[in-house]
Amino acid sequence: MIYNMMKDSIPVQFHLKIRKDGEFLIASSKSYDIYFLNDVAKEFYLRIDGKTTIGGIVEKLLNIYEVEENVLIDDIVSLVRDLQWKNIVRLK
Question: Would you say 88 and 13 are in contact if contact means Cβ atoms under 8 Å apart?
């Protein structure tokens, strides 16, 4: 499972600028592309502190949202891959 390979990785924000706009977080990449992150993506992104693993962030989100763990994990895996593709998150 992909999550098992990435859960111990530490995500690092790699944006030029971010701005909260209601339920959305607007992030611009180093290449000046702009991305709108929905509520769950925003909550994940704002918890990236360069120290907490993906697994640690998932645990925090499970305490906030009433969702099955496997559903959240699938969403976070897709989100992390998407944010990596957009070059606004890197894993270490």
Answer: yes
